[in-house]
## 1
Amino acid sequence: MSDEHQAATDPKAIDPAELADLTRAFPHLHLPIPIGTERKASEIAGIRYSVESVLSIGEPVHETITERALKNTGLLSAGETYSDQPAWDFTRGVFWNDDPEGLLFQSGAEALPLAISVAGGIQFLRAFKQAARLAKQPGTSFGTEDRLLVRSHFGDLQFLHAMASRDGEDPRQTLTWILEWAELVYAVATRPELAELPVCEVPLSQVRRWFPKEARTVAELFGVCGGGKVQQRALASLLHLVQDSYASGHTARHSGDGRVVEFHSYVHQDGGRHAQGDKLIDGCLEKTPAALQAVASCTAILQMYQRKDSWQNLMVLLRDQIFELTDYPNPSSAGAEFAAD
Ligand SMILES: [Zn+2]
């Protein structure tokens, strides 16, 4: 272990005030953030193990909705949860939009896909806070030259959370990017030959636009290094996007028919207000109508994947049902309920 790694895993390396600040300001991370490690390395029948302490920021909203949709389709059996083996790659994939660099998980070949990385969690937190500070400065924008973590939360890839990339964005533009993302991940999910292709060589024009120099393979982009099913991880990133679109801080929907009125943009939102729209009522799917709609939409997408339905049919489901716009949708804004004072 290098000195640097040891320093990073020192529980004192993370400031509780910093963590509290992050919890308050950026709750649309529904992430388990490692807060240090109680390295209880013990010998049990020759196996060394260590216990790491983890604090969840936000609630396991994405995991819970995904778990329910997987059960609806039979991809997960009734007694299993999102942390059981059949769900691993879906769970990793549904995290990907929030953690596209896979910092929060250990990536070694022998590590379980859901094993948390303490050092990576600290790195994640610091990079995130630094980008958040920069993003607030007028004129700052993040794009293809920036790291994925920053692009996803504060830059050109904010459509990964069903949000616009700036104030005043035409909702048809946001929707176009959402559909382009769906086209990419559905291609990956249904065409195994794409997994080993360098990302910049994927034959879709939007992929070259987003990742012009990305020499890693598609599997590596989605965090599959040793084992792992890139098809499920890629598809789950679409589930994340769809789930976010039912959170009121991300997307405003018509109170009657559920059509999209506005994709919000994050830069002028108040983090705490945004957070309220991300929560399950009493932590319960049944009490949260929008969460049940998200389950239904995710179930429909997974069923199409199971049937190996065409991209054309999935596109129609997304464009004309899940993300149907009202007749006169608004350009993006923070949204009156979520704007910072
Ligand atoms: Zn999100």
## 2
Amino acid sequence: MPKLVCVKCRVIMKVKKNGVGFLEYTETGPYKLTASDKWECPKCSFEILAGFAEEGLHSTNGNFDRLIIYHIDNNTLVREATDVNSNSK
Ligand SMILES: [Zn+2]
């Protein structure tokens, strides 16, 4: 387990939920879904995703849409923001 610390609160963050899907986009739409863990600061409730799986599931995989729906139904899907400057990637 990695150790993650909220700098603002100076406390160790806790895993809030395992198996959270992070959906990344290209200009043409969603292209990769990767499992991760959601961590939370117990003091200020700041949340991050960490502990990503080595391999993501690409949109060419036959289970891609089904898995996205699964995450939506379980409220475990985080979609990458697409309105940020591409230079920040
Ligand atoms: Zn905090």
